[in-house]
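Course assignment 3, question 2. Fill in each field.
Student: A.L.
Task: Predict the tertiary structure for the chain below.
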Amino acid sequence: MSAPFEVRKLNHIAWKCRDAEETRAFYEGVLGMPLAHVVRADEVPSTGERCPYVHIFFRMHDGSFVAFFDLGDGTSTAPDPGTPSWVNHLALEVGSMAELVAAKARLEAAGVEVLGVTDHYWLQSIYFFDPNGYRLELSYRSKGPEYLDECAREAHAALAAWNAEKRAAAGA
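Answer field:
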């Protein structure tokens, strides 16, 4: 079934942050993502709910954004205690292996603990946490588009195999 629309790209992803300035210092100062937009309001436009907030947006090279809400209460969203800390994360892409290595050095110089470079065969990645406790991944695609084309051809069969194994394990 074809949709009457096409999702083109990420506009933004938004999370709650504990402090807008601390978050700005990290995303702009350490990751080099410029602060591009700030929305300050006392009412949520989509719900009409009264909740004073500031909504801050950091621009990526492709024009998409990573955004945060500071609700003024000094807290960020608590992670789900039933989910391993490596599961929920935001993966951002850099343009070369040299940039990935430079990003690791810059993060470490800023006192950020970095895991990796991790080789995922088609992707080289480093992992770290932002000041709000959100896990981030910076990655470089080390394989060309032909590799991902091959993966796409096999994706439905691979997922069907996983689902069959999961059902079989649940029934055992």
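Instructor remarks: Helices lie at 20-30, 97-109, 145-171. The chain has a mean pLDDT of 95.
Grade: pending
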